[in-house]
Amino acid sequence: MGKKKERRCSFCGRPESEVNNLIGGFAAYICDECVQIAYEVLKEARLNYEPQEAAIEEIPKPSQIKAFLDKYIVGQERAKKVISVAIYNHLKRIKHKNRFDDVELEKSNILMIGPTGVGKTLMAKTLAKFLNIPYAIYDATPLTEAGYVGEDVENILLRLVQNADYNLEKARYGIIYLDEFDKLSRRQDSPSLTKDVGGEGVQQALLKIVEGTVANIPPQGGRKHPEQSYIQLDTSDILFIMGGAFDGLADIIRERLGRREIGFRGEHKKVDDREILRLVQPEDLIKYGIIPEMVGRLHVIAVFDPLDVDDLVKILTEPRNALVKQYQKLFELEGVSLQFTQKALETIAEIAMKRGTGARGLRAIMEEVLNDIMFQLPELKERGVARIIITDETILKHKEPIFEVREERKAGG
């Protein structure tokens, strides 16, 4: 009978006598040293896929974030401070989240509450611009539960991936702003036999990606099909910002407070919605129709103040992207100066207030005022017009603006 053949490691080929341990499997063996090498290879591969720190070189201070927001957003001082702190903490969490074994740093998503046209969407855009990260803005109203006519929540993620040029690593640290979020509230008055396909069901579907999951995204959008190959995106570090007007929320808060009123020397006046909304509690949002699990994931609440005429005038003239500055630049390209009287600016603001559109409606009003003038602008330049002054009568009575001609044209007759 021949000598028994010595077992060898199937990877490095060394015999059992030359290794500390040889682990046997089905028709194969591996030694302890090859196990250690395999562990190191897998560890390195995992680190390459999930880096310990995100590529955030320097985290801006809350004051720096707010200073940038101030360049584009008028007013909303309290909301800007709340959001600046939230963004600062979010970036710190991403950069250092794998440094702590004893504490898990949770993501702090943001809920913005305020009427239309007060700057909620602009706030999200400006934050993404400042942080130089991809963002997606999505309207919540077309979202429905899977199986119903509408759009799946994964389409929100697809838009973020597209805006990140399909760079999944960048998309993982992006911002998603979901507008009209209040429209997804659970319908309290809907009949029990009617399926609320655009309310609670969508909130439940959103909850998964807001909490953090590896989502399967159809690369072409639309509904999922078994034959499609999916893009997989980890949403754990995506910052979600939900925004909405939440009409009626102030009344819910008042009811909780026992319809309290503020009095001074015997005169009572109802607290306005601005002050009431700042007292919002999770229970108020739940009563409004936001599911408790979602409320628990919206840790930061920023309440936006309604805008008045003075605010709208400032929005027209002061920010870096102010409409008046934009139109002045367009006219300047034709060699013509554009100016507005103070009364004209106030009139534009008052029209926006009456329409209830806030700052969002200012551009449409400006287009109405300037469209005919811009149509004639090349000819006006040829006639020697150097300056055009828009007055309140130009807006209210459709009178021609004041045209000032260059001095040489005056002299030449």
Describe this structure in words.
It is a single chain. By secondary structure, this protein is of the alpha/beta class. Strands 4-5-8-3-11 form a five-stranded parallel β-sheet. It has a three-stranded mixed β-sheet with strand order 12-13-14. It is 43% helix and 15% strand.
Mean pLDDT: 82
Number of strands: 14
Main sheet, how many strands, which sense, barrel? Answer: 5 strands, parallel
Uncertain residue ranges: 45-54, 146-150, 189-197, 261-269
The CA-CA distance between the termini, in Å, is 126 Å
Question: How many helices in DSSP terms?
Answer: 17
What structural category do the secondary elements indicate?
A: alpha/beta
Keywords summarizing the entry:
single chain, 413 residues, alpha/beta, 3-stranded mixed β-sheet, 17 helices
Short structural summary:
This protein is an alpha/beta fold and 413 residues long. Helices cover 43% and strands 15% of the residues.
What's the layout of helices and strands?
Elements: E1 22-25, E2 28-31, H1 32-49, H2 62-72, H3 77-96, E3 110-113, H4 120-131, E4 135-139, H5 154-163, H6 168-171, E5 175-179, H7 200-211, E6 214-217, E7 231-234, E8 239-244, H8 249-256, E9 262-264, E10 267-269, H9 273-277, H10 282-288, H11 292-295, E11 300-303, H12 309-317, H13 323-332, E12 337-340, H14 342-355, H15 362-382, E13 385-390, H16 392-396, E14 402-405, H17 407-412
Parallel strand pairs: 3-8, 3-11, 4-5, 5-8, 12-13
Antiparallel strand pairs: 1-2, 6-7, 9-10, 13-14
Helix pairs in contact: 2-3, 2-4, 8-10, 12-14
